[in-house]
Design brief:
mainly alpha; transmembrane; two-stranded parallel sheet; 10 helices; Sec-independent protein translocase protein TatC; about 300 residues; protein transport
Length: about 300
Amino acid sequence: MPLADHLRELRNRLAKGVLAILVVTIVAAFFYRDIINFITEPVLDEVGCKATFGELAKVKNAHCAHITVSGLLAPFTLALKVALTAGVVLASPVWLYQLWAFVAPGLHRNEKKYAYAFVGFGFPLFLGGGYLAYHVLPTTAKVMIDLTPDSAENLLPLDNLLDLITRMIVVFGLAFEMPLLLVMLNLTGVLSGRRMLGWWRGMVVGITVFAAVATPSPDPMTMLALAAPIWGLFFIAVAFSLLNDRRRARRASLGPADDEASELDLTPEDIGEIEPVPAARALPEQTTAERVNGYDDVT
């Protein structure tokens, strides 16, 4: 396909993806209060001085946070941010498909197979990480709010709370993709299972440090809630890679398959047995001096 056609197709794919995001964003704008309630309700039930958005109810613990929205344009900006975020997330099947449809024609068959596997397993893993963050955040928020002095009142801006929840969900979701990336490197032959197994001490320490930095709470239970599933996924990836390496070695020992060409060994066994290549025979002598259209018969 010429470059102009590639650019034209890219423009059409991007237009379809942006249009899907715009449509979902407009629909989500009418339900932005429900979206905010769904995102913040677990945290507010634990630490908020209001049990739900716009509903007054004191919580049982001694410390609580008052949810605030400051500024005249803050409610409009908040609604726009929530609607746009919901549009990008909910319209992801459409724009991801458009991206895939643009890239797929340039991939080989095995590359498409790996890409399908990555998407098929990557999306559930990301949802699992986001689901874990969604249920860990209330405990994290309670530990942080309990650090507030008795004489102080905690004011929690709603936009900051939404940014924190979104960031935590994205961080947890991406962290759950790490074992899948290791498996894909093993399937492509870049990384062996034995080498991955040799990294297990460093990976355990690295995952622990990452969990401690990713979770804003000093509570060790919150850190372990993120680190433990990633540890388990890492060792599952190592076990899969070791089995795949063993299968690959067994297949290589059996030789090429029926539809594969074996490598030819062109190295001679004994140089002395090579027969000399005879020189090219000389052209037959000109038998007649007659020429046809200026050329002799040999030409």
